[in-house]
Predict the structure of Gfo/Idh/MocA family protein.
Amino acid sequence: MTTSLRIAVIGAGSISSVHLQAYANNPEAKLVAVCDKNEARAREKAERFGAAQVYTDYKELLADPNIDAVSICTWNNTHAEISIAALDAGKHVLCEKPLCKTVAEAKLVEEAVRRSGKVLQVGFVRRYADNTQILRKFIEAGELGDIYYAKASCLRRLGNPGGWFSDIEKSGGGPLIDLGVHVIDICWYLMGKPKVKSVSGNTYRKLGNRANIQNLAYYQAADYDPTLNNVEDFSNALIRFENGASLAVEVSFTLHALKDEIGVKIYGDKGGAEIEPELQIITEKYDTILNVTPQVDQLGFDVVKGFSNEIAHFVSSCQGNTETLSPVEDGLEMMKILCGIYESAAKGMEVQF
Ligand SMILES: NC(=O)c1ccc[n+]([C@@H]2O[C@H](COP(=O)([O-])OP(=O)(O)OC[C@H]3O[C@@H](n4cnc5c(N)ncnc54)[C@H](O)[C@@H]3O)[C@@H](O)[C@H]2O)c1
């Protein structure tokens, strides 16, 4: 018999609801506290999801010995600081993506994980999706052969979330660090996490946040404010790996595109696969090309199920029953890639590792 893990959620904005709902539905977890600088927001979420305690200062929350683990759902510029403080206070951590803003911060978080011996899981939620884990079985069995190319795109024609997301001090960047992190990570994970060799990237600030556009809804930060916007609105990059494989990526908060687009495609010498927008496997048999559609409940990314799987895996890793699928080392590698792309764009040349 394991006792249920006592959970607090720090940051009670938009994404926290999916964390809170997943914990509330998990019989191995018990929600005990919610923290946000904005007390009314923390209180509202605590009441809605049945947590008894409300905090406005995460340091006070971390001093509570009746909390075993925390989800960090705050602005990107606070991820490293809160993760390190939580680990040093003896709590397990599920930190939302990106792990932090810089490689230097990521290394400090990695050190804190080592010295605390606690679990830190990076919120690479797409790794936990059913379609990813199905494809993973095919890849591990060699169905795609040697994977040498992947292509990731996440194009919003209108979708700068405003507020802290568009303030580079708080976010670390625009669509590359916010959306690119998901699609680059899922390709890298499915490619078998090859070591990155170089990156060449571009960032553009051509369209602004287009807060003038009407009659088209999009994801917004809890404190939506369009007045400050100093992040890129489009970025692309080519990432080279030491094993010779490459990954092309393109992401936008806004672009004059016909429609929003998400695509994650992986190509090997025996077969290919798409995981976004929907799982498909491409192969060859008896001199004929086959497009294979797995017969599963959800071919696309199911947000609620993805978070529920991610949180179930976190809880079970904290209980010592599993190893996290998205450890701090992977968060650090992703920061190297993302920061490398920003550096390459600023210098106008390839960055080698
Ligand atoms: N995995 C995903 O698909 C996904 C989706 C959306 C957002 N996110 C990530 O989740 C995080 C939060 O995003 P969001 O959309 O919920 O933002 P949000 O602005 O809606 O909410 C963030 C909340 O954090 C609070 N906060 C900030 N600093 C704090 C601090 N020091 N102490 C206490 N509270 C603090 C703010 O008051 C706010 O309520 C970001 O890192 C974002 O990248 C992940």
